[in-house]
Amino acid sequence: MTSLVSMDEKAVKKAYARWAPVYDFSFGAITQAGREHAVEAINLRHGSVLEVGVGTGMSLAKYKSHLRVTGIDLSPEMLAKARERVAKNTLSHVEDVLEMDASDLRFADDSFDTVVAMYVMTVVPDPDQVMSELQRVCKPGGEVFLINHFSQDFGVRGKFEKAIAPFAEQLGWRPEFPISRVMTQQNLSLEENIQVSPFGLFTMLRFVKQETCEAQIIPLTAASISAANSVQGYGAEV
Question: Quick one: what percent of the chain has pLDDT higher than 90?
């Protein structure tokens, strides 16, 4: 398995305390198309939704009113803005916005019909544990959505990602993060894998949680990663 630059929880919280005042006008603008794409798909579903890494709550108003949405995030500063957004827009479908560690979700097993983590996996100190938690709290037959940047190991972009990887803690996210790092849960079946705007820099993955644990662990090999990339028209990132 590809090793990752370490991320310290305190450093991440410090980074996002800095980003909170300007997030919506900087990263928010870049990530908005991906958020809308994921929420559009989730709006076709029903029941309860957990958004992990809700940030300033940019997506909350876009969920349809028939859903019951809970948001969690590690950053108090980001959450304060999310709560302001909920109150200002009277978002009655948002049941709660909580400060919580994505690697230690305080929910029972099989709690949510849909679990979504947008632009989260490159941020968390332990992505393997976070993936385990996402599948744990998702109901059997439910869906887990990820929107994320996945790095490539070739071309100009690949070289740039490697060059800035040592500055991950200062940035608040890992520039170098291969797709193999989220293909780790034996009862999450990958059903969709598509690139989203802008410029195909981000990818949406949609998993279905199996009713039983009969699904096999996906081997983290070049062949398995290539197979994952082929689902639903995934192509080389630019």
Answer: 51
